[in-house]
Amino acid sequence: MELVYSIDVLQKQYLKDWVSEERTTISLSCRNILALLKLSESGNSSHYDRQYEVVVFDIDKPWESYLVTIVPKQLLQIVWDTTGSKLLLIDVDGECQVWAMKEHILNDWQCIGSVSNVGEEILAVMWFHNGLQIIFDPDKREKTQYIEKFVRNMRFKPSLTQFGGSFVEGWVLVSASGLVTVGVHQTDGTVITSSESLSTNHMRLTAADVANTGNGDIMIATSDGQLSSAIQCYIVSVKLSGKNITITSTNGASLYTKTQLDYSVSDNQRITKVMFMNNECSDTIFVCCGNSTHCSLEVWQLLEQMLPQHKMFSMNTAPYNSIKTHKWMHKATIPHPAQLTCIAGPKLPMSRNVVETTGFLPYIALAYKDGTIQLIHRYTFQVISTSNLESLCQPTQSYPGAADRVFNSTLQLSAMTQTGSGCGIFGLHDGRVYLFKTYNGSRDSTMQLPPTSIVLLLEYAMVTGQDCWDVLLAVRQGMIMSICQSLTENFSKQVHTMQDYVFMRLLSMKMGLFSSYSAGHQKAVDFHTQLVLYSIGNVIKSILKPRNITSQDKGPAERVSILCTKHTDGDIDQILRSLDTDEFHVEVRKKDKPDLTLSSLQPLIQWVSDFSLQLLSAAPMFQSFSSFTGSSLLTDSTVLHLLREILVIFKMWGQIYPSCLPSFTTTSVSLDIIKHMYKLLTRAWNCCREGRSIEFDDTLLDECSVLPSKVFIPGLSQSFRMDNMGFSVFTQVLPLMFKFDEEPDYLYQKKLTKTHKSVVDQSNHSDQFHDIVRQIHLGNKVSNDTRKCTRCGCLSLLKPVGKSQTMVSWEQRWIRNCLCGGHWKLLK
After folding, report:
1. Where is 277: in which H helix or E strand?
2. Rounded to the nearest 10 degrees, how much is the dihedral formed by the CA atoms of 597, 601, 602, 607?
3. Are strands 824-826 and 320-336 parallel, antiparallel or unpaired?
4. Per-residue CA distances from 771 to 308, 542, 744, 795, 800 (Å)
5. Which of 673, 681, 735 minimizes the C-alpha distance to 708?
6. Are 725 and 751 contacting, i.e. CB atoms less than 8 angstroms apart?
7. Does residue 656 contact residue 581 with C-beta atoms inside 8 Å?
8. How large is the average pLDDT for residues 533-552?
9. Which helix (DSSP H) or strand (DSSP E) does residue 546 occupy?
């Protein structure tokens, strides 16, 4: 393990006159947004009158924290939902609140429901599962198709469904009195609840956990803390009928710990933790027994057992009949001479029947009060690695006020969670957050992850839609080129439907990989521009609908693509003559007119045209410079072919609605810019297609050289986002130290230098802000209703401006996230 960075969440330094054992909790979403509770520094800092803040931040830029809410009481649980857009907050008095992002803005939250369980201490909480589980199997890394590598578990069912079998969003709570409370969030914004006791007997629990069984039921494991008592498991089923919730609890298989046989009552041994491996794995449970000076962690697995049944209890004539029952089997015991503080289980859904995990070591992380962190193998339950927190955090202990902040000399973690891929661990203690990378560290030779396993993790994130930032923790600088090449080769072997499904995610992933590469900023910028180009190209092609079409005919976009591939002479008029203009029309609603739809798309049309001019004008630089803005796009035959197709569509629309054509500032009125650009793009496409050596002929270079004298070339800043500061953590010397609301020095220097400007862009550079979604200028000063991407830094208007249904749909497509996949935040 190695420390990546640490964050000081408190600006002020507080002296402690006693040892505080405040409960802390953190939660990481599937989109790599970390939520935690911190002491509020705005009000009274008295020990008896404190307020707490729930804050979230993108782990890519941990110094930018965003407030969710301020609570007057300590929180026991903070839990993200499966989509990463809602937070469940539970305080010490049993108050439960659900907070959601307002209009998907990371720094704007609203409470959408609350449930009061006054006097109840909540021990465990879980969001309902939506039933979608895709298995990660390292044994299938040699498979070619994604659909064979990542198989969906069809037996896994949602926790709660309504009429028709659709998933219902909600959560389940377990209190210390054995009360199960279910909350369901309705579509009208209301929250309905129901409570039921686990048992008819009085219960006083000290530890519990919740997990899904896979068949739609919920398993709850409980303990009263006594070694002499059993770990009692219950199977809970939840049914919804209208607004009535029915909760049914039945007894499940239970177990007695092995530790009770090794220690007497005088040793003061108690059961301190009961935890499932994760909320999707109810067949593996961890039971921690111990005291202040010792602990032992027991691992139990639930197995199916066939027992013979006597004929007097069977309806069959056979003398014996087997019945199926469940039984907990002890797998391992892990002792340690210190108290266990927290456990971080793996989040990847993996089958228990994995044959071998060569190159990939799934683990369970254990943190102890003496500062030790152990990594335990997920299947063999053997200790893989042992680290000490003080030695890992040695460089970070020299910050001002460190001696005042730490009352006890021993540094420990009070809360811990794994990232989605397991490549990183987040820990929290005493107002500081730590991020550790577990694989490919220089200190630990056992936790090495080969590039093939990293590619498999990236492809899993690409298929499931999860954020891949944490996977990059295992990527060394020398691996990036080979990983990108493997991703491209594997992608090219997929069927077309799968390629269309994951292509945009692949571009976003490559942008992140090259952004984390110290010499890859230029290619990262090109991939970001490619994201914008393909997004616009898809919406332009999607509104092309012929008036009459049969199942045997090809669509208009397909016919344009075939003709552009067939005709290589660069004459756009020849292609237009092969198309019947009357067969093409823009699909609109009754309220919209075709000319209004195309007029609303004019900014997108203008962006594609300006981008084509910028790309062609930079072609002469290719012979002298190996890397410049747009160099990788200029040599990409797929990009050039897409531009040719889009220009043909523009020319075809212009014959029907001339007002939708892009505008140019030219020195000659007779020059047809679109026709001229198509000719030059065709020549460039001929030079680099079919694996040919990329060497532009002199005629093409001469015509591209005089292009700026014929038409005004817009600045590159509106097409290429060269101020991208995302993934900059990976290009620095680790470990790093951050503070909330304080931008690091290296980022300021990076903004100040701006070494990636192209020579072509020096004369036409503009400081105007640009809307990445609508492709319109926002002026030199942005308004208050503007949102900004937390990853790439692009801006966009918060309120919709589209008048046609096509433009409204385009804006709605990016309401949840930016084109690069990052969250939006509101500029205040």
Report:
1. strand 270-278
2. -170
3. unpaired
4. 71, 22, 27, 5, 12
5. 673
6. yes
7. yes
8. 79
9. strand 544-546
* Phi-psi map region of 754: left, alpha, beta (phi>0 left; psi -120 to 50 alpha): left
- The first and second tokens of residue 71, run together, are 């609570």
Structure tokens at 640: 């050039």
Cα distances (angstroms) measured from residue 367 to each of 295, 338, 676: 12, 10, 66
CA distance 296 to 376: 13
> pLDDT tens digits for 43-99?
655 566 788 999 999 999 999 999 999 998 889 999 999 999 999 999 998 899 999
User: What type of residue is 434?
Assistant: Y
Q: Tokens at residue 592, please?
A: 């919209």
Q: What's the Cα-to-Cα distance from 322 to each of 302, 304, 310, 484, rounded to whole Å?
A: 19, 12, 9, 54
**pLDDT grade for 570, boundaries at 50, 70 and 90:** confident
Based on its alpha-carbon atoms, the radius of gyration of the chain, rounded to whole angstroms, reads 30
Torsion over CA: 597, 600, 602, 603 (sign): negative
The residue ranking higher by pLDDT, 667 or 374, is 374
Strand partners of residue 288:
273, 297
Q: Where in the chain are the domains?
A: 525-720, 767-828
**CB 788, CB 754: distance < 8 Å:** no
User: What's the rounded Cα separation, in Å, for the pair 506 and 352?
Assistant: 30
Q: What angle do CA 511, 513, 519 make, to 5 degrees?
A: 95
Nearest to 57 by CA among 67, 47, 46: 67
CA nearest neighbour of 719 among 775, 802, 759, 663: 775
Check residue 119 and give left, alpha or beta (phi > 0: left; psi -120 to 50: alpha): left
Place of tokens 């309401």: 815
Nearest to 424 by CA among 457, 465, 399: 457
For residue 48, count CB atoms less than 10 angstroms from its CB and return exposed for 0-12, middle for 13-18, buried for 19 or more: exposed
Structure tokens at 371: 């500062």
3-state per-residue secondary structure call for 350-395? CCCCCCCCCCCCCEEEEEECCCEEEEEECCCCCEEEEEEHHHHCHH
The pTM of the full predicted model, rounded to 2 decimals, is 0.92
Stated as kind and residue range, the H or E segment containing 264 is none
CB within 8 A of 365, min separation 6: which ones?
343, 344, 373, 374, 375, 376, 416, 418, 425, 438
